[in-house]
């Protein structure tokens, strides 16, 4: 797909990270449903090298490592998929996703211009791509996968980030909704207001795609948690908690998604409140029994100082 085609596709795309290994397979349909009802367009997931290739050239896609089944569950719910193949994923995952056997290969140097590393990396990424292609899961084949990623832009604040070239989309592949927990440490918390404001800033400044990392973190089963001292819970203060229960943060994040869409449509000038026809209104379903009506009553310019909060005021009815 050309870069201009990607820009057309990603006018405003809200994505969530979902870690297939961190949840039971029985939970997948419900997680997809809650993601769609939360207003998301796509679900992003990793391909974990050390989980899928625990021994060299021996592969495992069983149980909750079944990447194809996970992608098909996304498709069944009418969502898009973003595939982060790795090879290094960090993700508070043991050894950052690298298989231990890779470390012991003669002459290898990790994450650098090293032929041994690059050859093994190419083998794994090619294996994943070919597997997804065989199942016709890429968008060009009628499947849900609209993007495959290796390099990413991650952080709490990426609204000022700009791509290296002007003809490619501005994408925020990890918008940290919270943080992970350490044994004996305090529970981390990112306020919803801070998260919501920066999402609005990102889209106002030309953003096309942002991914909530995490929307649902799940659990680090077994010995999969990375270190040092990272807990088995990967709750991450996410909109859906470790057990996939909806939190207030989910509702508030959903508000800002709608607000960001309005910002894209509104001109950056004052809106006359007395002229009802110029007020921006959007109705939003919040599941089976809730609906939110949001009105844009003022300007869409946002202040440059994050501490002042958003300059867009909205009211619900």
Automatic annotation (TrEMBL):
Biological processes annotated in GO? carbohydrate metabolic process
Query: Which keywords, in A-to-Z order, does the entry hold?
Result: Signal
Which molecular-function annotations from GO does this UniProt entry contain? Answer: beta-galactosidase activity
Q: Where is the signal peptide?
A: 1-22
Q: Give the EC number(s) listed in the UniProt record.
A: 3.2.1.23
Name the SUPFAM superfamilies on file: (Trans)glycosidases (SSF51445)
Query: Can you tell me where the transmembrane regions are?
Result: none
Segments forming domain Glycoside hydrolase 35 catalytic: 25-148, 153-249
Cross-referenced Pfam families: Glyco_hydro_35 (PF01301)
* Reaction(s) catalysed (UniProt annotation): Hydrolysis of terminal non-reducing beta-D-galactose residues in beta-D-galactosides
Broadest EC class assigned to this enzyme: hydrolase
Organism domain of life: Eukaryota
Task: Write out the similarity annotation.
Answer: Belongs to the glycosyl hydrolase 35 family.
State the protein's name. Answer: beta-galactosidase
Q: Which organism is it from?
A: Populus deltoides (Eastern poplar)
């Amino acid at each position: 797909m050309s870069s201009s085609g990607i820009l057309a596709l990603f006018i405003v795309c809200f994505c969530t990270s979902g870690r297939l290994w961190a949840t039971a397979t029985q939970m997948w349909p419900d997680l997809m449903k809650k993601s769609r009802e939360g207003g998301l367009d796509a679900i992003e997931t990793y391909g974990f090298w050390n989980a899928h290739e625990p021994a060299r050239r021996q592969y495992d896609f069983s149980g909750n490592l079944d990447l194809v089944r996970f992608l098909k569950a996304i498709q069944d719910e009418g969502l898009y998929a973003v595939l982060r193949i790795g090879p290094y994923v960090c993700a508070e995952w043991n050894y950052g996703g690298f298989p231990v056997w890779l470390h012991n290969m003669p002459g290898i140097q990790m994450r650098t211009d090293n032929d041994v590393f690059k050859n093994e990396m190419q083998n794994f990424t090619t294996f994943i791509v070919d597997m997804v292609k065989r199942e016709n899961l890429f968008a060009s084949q009628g499947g849900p996968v609209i993007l495959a990623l290796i390099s990413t832009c991650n952080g709490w604040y990426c609204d000022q980030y700009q791509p290296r070239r002007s003809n490619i989309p501005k994408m925020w592949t990890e918008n940290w909704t919270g943080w992970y927990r350490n044994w004996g440490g305090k529970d981390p918390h990112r306020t919803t207001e801070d998260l919501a404001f920066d999402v609005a800033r990102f889209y106002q400044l030309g953003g096309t795609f942002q991914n909530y990392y995490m929307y649902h973190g799940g659990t680090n089963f077994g010995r999969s948690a990375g270190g040092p001292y990272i807990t088995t819970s990967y709750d991450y203060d996410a909109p859906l908690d470790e057990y996939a229960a909806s939190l207030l943060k989910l509702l508030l994040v959903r508000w800002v998604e709608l607000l960001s869409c309005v910002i894209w449509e509104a001109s950056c000038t004052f809106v006359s409140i007395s002229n009802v026809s110029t007020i921006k209104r959007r109705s939003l379903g919040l599941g089976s029994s809730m609906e939110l009506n949001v009105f844009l009553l003022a300007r869409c310019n946002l202040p440059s100082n994050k501490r002042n909060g958003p300059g867009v005021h909205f009211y619900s009815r």
